[in-house]
Write a structure and sequence with these properties.
globular; FAD/NAD(P)-binding domain; eight-stranded mixed β-sheet; five-stranded parallel β-sheet; alpha/beta; 12 helices; 20 strands; binds flavin-adenine dinucleotide
Length: 383
């Protein structure tokens, strides 16, 4: 029997696995990371690569390793002057990914990897029995659920219809094929939309329209840095009512926001007429001879050959059959919003731990981010 199974090998699962190995809580043969992709961080690399994100939004002390200064030290040795940006030393995506790969080779993480999708989790003889889509089974003493947003992407209803009509021309930015033919429309006003607009405006100047319901919301980070420490987290931990915790998280998150350097780049691209910004909402569309005409609430019409939705993830994250069954079988405690109520060590019940979105009622607004993965790894490996 294994000691640990980690479901999901994204930023969160890979951080927890690396910490377990580095802190000698397990040897690589006692742990399995189960993920449908062939390699760690596949979703992260795909999403950030497609939008051509040059720098992370988070500072250089947020990464997957155990020592907070590990990435800075790695950058000094292997990077260049341009690998850290601005006052928060935001790392380049290239350096960040290289540092992750180096950590995975140091911890021999790939030896623990199993490519597959978990479809059933049950408790059997004091162990967790995980059955995968390919019918392979694994048994372990401890289980971590780090399946992130569970691949559930959000697309508005009209977008779903458009996607079904012309799948080659309409996609969510996190599952998109490379850009082919303009005019392009990017729906959304957050950071993924901003990076994609910059990429497309450089490749196809004058052929790009961004449609967003709100003007750019400018914030340095996803949430105030006060949420990383006692300043706000002390008060959060004292909230016994999980409705209040959920409301606090929703209020604290700067959803759909971008940092000021991106706003500046967009400003100049707009001035050069490389793209146009439309603050409006699409309410209907027509599709004729390969061209979409998007009808805006204001009455304006916009033509598109290719439509990208940069509209984030679905909130229906807990609506995953194997997770729903597990909650029922083990009578796991969930708040009114459906999310886990976990202990301080992020255990949902004995020997079952969560990370990422599933841990946010305990870790607060930064739970989904890289720092959330570091915090989860710290707590889970402290046992
Ligand atoms: C474009 C972009 C930029 C971002 N920039 C930053 C930043 O600068 N700083 C920051 O802190 N955060 C940033 N974030 C947010 C955050 O760090 C990421 O969303 C993070 O990658 C989430 O990691 P995760 O492991 O929870 O999820 P994922 O990366 O989605 O990994 C979850 C894994 O679980 C797998 N999985 C799902 N279901 C199953 C199953 N049933 N069985 C087995 N495996 C399963 C998935 O295939 C996936 O590989 C960014 C996010 C995006 C999208």
């Amino acid at each position: 029997m294994l000691k640990w199974i980690i479901l999901g090998g994204g930023i969160h699962g890979s951080t927890i696995a690396s910490h377990l190995i580095k802190k000698k809580k397990v040897t690589p043969d006692q742990i399995r990371i189960i993920d449908p992709n062939a390699e760690p961080l596949a979703e992260w690399k795909k999403r950030t690569g497609f939008i051509d994100m040059p720098y992370l939004r988070s500072p250089g002390v947020h990464h997957l390793d155990t020592d907070p200064f590990s990435l800075k030290a790695y950058g000094k040795k292997h990077g260049t002057e341009t690998d850290f940006y601005g006052i928060y030393s935001r790392p380049s995506l290239y350096l960040f990914n290289e540092h992750c790969d180096q950590l995975f080779s140091e911890t021999t993480l790939k030896e623990c990897w199993y490519q597959g999708t978990a479809e059933k989790v049950i408790r059997k003889n004091h162990a967790w029995l995980v059955t995968l889509k390919d019918q392979a089974t694994f048994e372990s003493e401890n289980l971590v659920i780090a399946t992130g947003p569970n691949r559930k992407l959000h697309v508005p209803d009209w977008g779903q219809t458009a996607k079904e009509m012309a799948p080659a021309q309409v996609s969510h930015v996190f599952e998109a094929a490379p850009p082919n033919k303009g005019p392009f429309v990017v729906i959304g006003g957050g950071i993924s939309a901003a990076h994609l607009v910059i990429r497309l405006s450089k490749e196809f100047p004058g052929q790009v329209t961004q449609i967003t319901r709100h003007p750019y919301r400018v914030h340095a980070f996803d949430s105030d840095p006060g949420w990383l420490g006692p300043k706000y987290m002390d008060g959060f931990k004292k909230l016994n009512d999980y409705r209040l915790r959920r409301d606090t998280i929703t209020e604290a998150r700067h959803r759909g926001s971008i940092p000021s350097d991106l706003q500046n780049r967009l400003h100049w691209l707009q001035k050069e007429q490389a793209y146009q910004l439309v603050i409006d909402e699409t309410e209907a569309f027509t599709y004729e001879q390969g061209t979409f005409t998007l009808q805006q609430k204001s009455g304006k019409q916009i033509e598109a050959n290719t439509i990208y939705f940069a509209t984030g993830f679905s909130r229906e994250l807990m609506d995953t059959p194997w997770l729903r069954d597990l909650v029922q079988d083990q009578k796991l405690k969930c708040a009114h919003c459906g999310f886990p109520v976990v202990k301080e060590d992020l255990s949902w019940c004995d020997h079952l731990y969560v990370s990422g979105p599933l841990a946010e009622l305990e870790l607060g607004p930064s739970s989904r981010n890289i720092i959330g993965a570091m915090k989860a790894a710290e707590r889970i490996t402290a046992i």
